[in-house]
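User: Please predict the structure of the protein below. I'd like the answer in structure-token form so I can feed it into my own downstream comparison script.

Assistant: Understood. Taking the following sequence of 250 residues as input:
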Amino acid sequence: AGFYEVGCMCTPLDAGYSVLGWNHPGFEGSTGIPLPEHEGNAIDVVMQYAVHQLGFSPDDIIIFAWSIGGYPATFAAMNHPATSAVILDATFDDLLPLAISRMPESLRGMVIRSVNTYFNLDIAAQLNRYPGPVLLIRRTRDEMITTIDPDAIESNRGNDLLVKLLQFRYPKLITESTITMLREWLSAPTPTVQAAVYNQYSVDEQLCTSLLKSWVAVNSASFPCLIGDQLSSEEKTQLLLFLASKHLIN
């Protein structure tokens, strides 16, 4: 949704990383049409170029994307699962809820059919097919990916992207009470309130780390991770909050 030449490139370049940027089909000087299938083809060419022409190993590549760029980024990640990590900045889970929120209710049926037929950007589903490290960056006053207004952080669709990721990766931690708690943490209007929610549940980060390491040592590091059956409700709550804090920053 923006030009990679401005802003996004500077920080990793200043940190000493090699950076390969690209524009969506139809953006700026790029040819083509920005439809989902064209986006997928284009980003796959970029990945193939990085690996086969520039000589980068997939496990040395980190994919960074902003906003709607989350669609091609997750497409690339799920098709190149050895990629080192994915960072999604101000990205949503699915285009449909955003489209519905911006159009008159009388056009709801047409919006649903149009999006599902031509612009089915299910970023969450693609991200769930990537097995590596994920970091979500949430803008706390984002006017583009909220369904109410920028101040209603509980309507930020980045929240739903996180929830869907954790539901897939750690299904045994998901209960009605833990999801309610997670939504409470995500809906906190300020960092102070969010920290208070986190502390309210007495999250023991050392215990959470130990539980995860023990599970991986006995089982595997693959997803879905089925840790949770032997945990108490309080331990599930702590572990889910801990994982949420490691996957999302403001």
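That's the full token string. The mean pLDDT is 93.
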